[in-house]
Amino acid sequence: MALDGIVISSIVKELQQCVGARINKIHQPTEHDLMISFRGNGIKDKLIVSANPTYPRVHFTNTNQQNPLEAPMFCMLMRKHCEGGVIDAISQVGRERIIHIDITHRDEIGDRSAKKIIVELMGRHSNIILVDPSTLSIFDGIHHVTPALSSYRIIMPGTVYSAPPEQHKLDPFEIVSIDQFKQALNIEEQGDDISVSNKQLVQQFSGFSPLLAQEIVYRSITGTDMVMEDTQQRPLIIGNDYITYNLNALWDAFYSLLNQVKAGHIKPEIVTAKQNEKMSFSITSLTHIDGARQTYTTISECLEAFYGDKAQRDTVKQRANDLIRFVTNEKQKNEQKVTKLEEAYSEAKDADRYRIIGELLTTYMHQIKRGDASVELINYYDENQSLIKIELDPQLNPSEHAQKYFKKYTKQKNALSIIEEQLEKTRQEIEYFTLLLAQLDQASLVDIEEIREELVSEGYMRERVKRGMKKKKANRPSVLHYKSNEGIEIVVGKNNLQNEYVTNRLADSQDTWLHTKDIPGSHVVIRSKAYNDETLELAAMLAAHFSQAKHSSLVPVDYTLIRHVKKPSGAKPGFVIYDHQKTLYITPDEAKIKAAPCEIK
Questions:
Q1: CA distances from 450 to 432, 476, 506, 577 (A)
Q2: Alpha-carbon gap, residue 389 to 125, rounded angstroms
Q3: What angle do CA 124, 130, 134 make, to 5 degrees?
Q4: What are φ and ψ of residue 26, in 5° steps?
Q5: Which of 473, 593, 572, 465 is nearest to 524 (CA)?
Q6: Alpha-carbon dihedral sign for residues 359, 361, 362, 366
Q7: Edge-to-edge, what's the strand order for the sheet holding 512-516?
Q8: Is 50 exceeded by the pLDDT of residue 234?
Q9: How far is CA 134 from the centre of its chain?
């Protein structure tokens, strides 16, 4: 991974197509991210602008993210000042990881005003800041920086924006001769051989990451941009240690790469190292890394593939930690309860033995005397007429002995039906919590809140509402709406509340319902009476993908008409029974699922 200044320069070049386009919609799906959609210039994809501390980035994306029911304050501010505005310019500050987006916007009464969005992609210090370009007064930032956090830069509404401290490095694009290159690296020797470290390239040139510096050094040694066939002949590049290089070869590798970037002749690539499975990306082929590589047409496609939903998954995992812990504990408690109930069930199954003893004691009562500690009687219930030894209480008379065993029989027999009922209920609880864990594994931020809401409504958790605030609830959950090749809508529920809505409220009786066979998963509905095999295949693939078996092959998926799907009285949300089903076997294909048009509504 290396989102350095050189990569940023290629991103900014790609974003030039936004100049002249109008900002149509702004959403803030998470506390770190903005999603901006455009109107005009033929832009189909949205722009993701992320100040995520671990995954800061800016690129076009075609993925859909669920938005919170109520837009955050920063999102509302951005909508007020930027929605409907025209992009005037997008630029990079030097070769730093800072992007400026200049906008002309008209307010409610039609007056024109200029706004500037400053995107700082600097790891845990990343930020998205809206400023007035004439005064540099900050409207707000997606992350606030108070005086307690920094005495140098304060990012708060009303304060004046100051740029991050300058690093006083040279712009590598302005180095056009070998003499300038030597001067930049403080090389005084006149010979062709020089001693320089990878670290020096990073320290002297703005926008250079250690990954890119290492690539340039490697190319200067091999004299080629191609990956060597014989990996055993690769020269070993040691981090920041000084190695002797040929000056001309190092300059050629440096100048050639930067010329390609300046001309826009980039080769975005993700390479996965054989040695440690670590993934790295850049705007050029990383020939110094031995591993599997994938090239992309644009830098946005490369970043989309690299980051995927990593940031979202991390955020979701962080938000869902308490839920996962709670559901896991509840599941484990029920599993322990099943073990104890099964032991009690085994003991209760011996109830008939107490009845037989009671009847034998009644039959042979004349052979028993008060004070006997035990007695051996012929068991006439046994084909072999074997003797059975019965323990007695010396304090009881023969009649009381028989009554004692009959009482034990009645108690155990009554317990048997109760234990069977408890076992069934506890196993259903385990199944329920197993399903919730599977749903949490694929949940979005909105899904997590819906699962929390479900646990509250089912009485497992207390509602978390801040004092003085009333929680706003949606009339209906947002669900995934896919379109098949023939234009038929396929709806997917990702949690129990969504499953309940999709199956019991949204679907018609003639729609087709799908679910993985005996595997926790989502309810999927094909919203049409007639459809082709491709639509059925996509729906089955979605059912398999949004299930516990998403990484398996040949997943069994049942499908039947909605009218054959019923919710038992008193059942938990999302629990149904069905019949008249057919089963097909499908292997989830993530590429096909991502290619299918999808909306969240």
A1: 15, 10, 18, 23
A2: 81
A3: 130
A4: -125, 130
A5: 593
A6: positive
A7: 582-586, 555-561, 512-516, 524-526, 489-492, 480-483, 598-600
A8: no
A9: 40
Reported as type and span, the H/E element at residue 464 is none
The whole-angstrom separation of Cα 82 and Cα 76 is: 10
pLDDT in tens, 512-522: 999 999 999 99
Q: Which two tokens stand for residue 486?
A: 């023939």
Other beta carbons less than 10 A from residue 409's beta carbon = 20
86-89 contact pairs (CB < 8 A, 24+):
86/20, 86/21, 86/22, 86/23, 87/18, 87/19, 87/20, 87/21, 87/22, 87/23, 87/38, 88/19, 88/114, 89/19
308: CB partners within 8 A, 6+ apart: none
Q: Which residues contact 488 (CB under 8 A, 6 or more apart)?
A: 526, 527, 528, 531, 535
Structure tokens at 233: 């002949």
DSSP-derived letter for residue 160 is B
Domain boundaries, the chain: 10-141, 172-310, 315-441, 480-600
The pLDDT > 70 percentage for the chain reads 92
Whole-angstrom distance, CA of residue 500 vs CA of residue 506:
9
DSSP helix/strand/coil, 573: coil
Which tokens is 530 given?
């007639």
> Does the predicted TM-score (pTM) go above 0.85?
no
133: part of which helix (H) or strand (E)? none
SS3 79: helix
pLDDT at 222 over 50: yes
Q: How far apart, in whole angstroms, are the C-alpha atoms of residue 75 and residue 102?
A: 18
CA distance 263 to 284: 13
The first and second tokens of residue 33, run together, are 């991210």
Q: Distances in Å between the alpha carbon of 496 and those of 449, 548, 574, 600?
A: 12, 14, 5, 17
Residue type present at position 452: R
Superfamily of domain 10-141: ibrinogen binding protein from staphylococcus aureus domain (2.30.310.10)
Q: Name the CATH topology of 315-441.
A: Helix Hairpins (1.10.287)
